[in-house]
């Protein structure tokens, strides 16, 4: 992607040492204030109190993505930090915890758009420089400078003056800067298209699950009836054990340890022994994820904030039962204080199932295929991100030159 625009540099001839690293001899080092205007426009106290605008706070920007507020707010009702005006082609730079890279390039027409003073608004002096400046914010050159500014600070933030003084490598040729920005933008577009496809696939799966698991759609060729069962009548109910971080660190192995978290499929580490072997259903008993259900297969371990279910009936597919159970658990979570779904409550949950094992298995196979397709797409996105990250570092330091 973009290969026809790139020249690979084979040796170090034509390079020089600078304050921000080794750069091509025909590049310069510029402060952001040299190539852009920081915080060009802000609202003042003379604004009509009823003036309405879209307010972008720090939560609206995350690592290159920007989320538009649903509704406008009036100036008189807005927080005091709602002051910075931004336009298309500007860059928002979060000065609070900048290591989280709350940066975004504005690629849409802006009317009545105001952001928090927690952002610096970077407006490039040359329109075609905007993307080049933007991608530099994600590079190691800027990252190193920001980290130095934060050392010894009691609050993880920098100010607008700091942003103005951040230094970036700057090719002298306008066309070179523009091409670097366009190449990296092409990668972002490819990633965005893949991510949209993933969301579409997830929505398709969600809709299919809704129709098949509720019986709104019935696949032909299968006999059977709907049956209501209580968990305690069809499952052996258990609980995991206390597994400390120390135990995981001192007994590392191949068998997963599942806890209350939902990221990484609930896995918090791996040890060299296992407590469970076979098909099980686990759920989170305590905390914000209480009631979340997982299907497990193989050798594994669970901590004490996980409940376990082992099906007693051989005519119920464990994958299918976990899907049907997930649709019910949220109704039973006790949310006073720390959310909980304990074993005694899980025992009395009623689950509606279609009592044909082959039908259950067939439906789950359909969902497994959908999951595999989504997983493959997610792996492709991650590969694109890693490739872009590597290319970005090469392009922004001149180790790889674009053809001009």
Automatic annotation (TrEMBL):
Name recorded for this polypeptide: Type I restriction enzyme, S subunit
Signal peptide positions on this chain: none
Similarity comment: Belongs to the type-I restriction system S methylase family.
Coiled coil: 367-394
Keywords associated with the record: Coiled coil, DNA-binding, Restriction system
PANTHER family, A to Z: TYPE I RESTRICTION ENZYME HINDI SPECIFICITY SUBUNIT (PTHR30408:SF13), TYPE-1 RESTRICTION ENZYME ECOKI SPECIFICITY PROTEIN (PTHR30408)
Family annotation (CDD domains): RMtype1_S_Fco49512ORF2615P-TRD2-CR2_like
GO biological process: DNA restriction-modification system
UniProt cross-references to InterPro entries, sorted A to Z: Restrct_endonuc_typeI_TRD (IPR000055), Restrct_endonuc_typeI_TRD_sf (IPR044946), Type-I_RS_S_subunit (IPR052021)
Record-annotated Type I restriction modification DNA specificity domain positions: 24-200, 225-385
GO function term, MF aspect, one: DNA binding
Keyword Nucleotide-binding in record: no
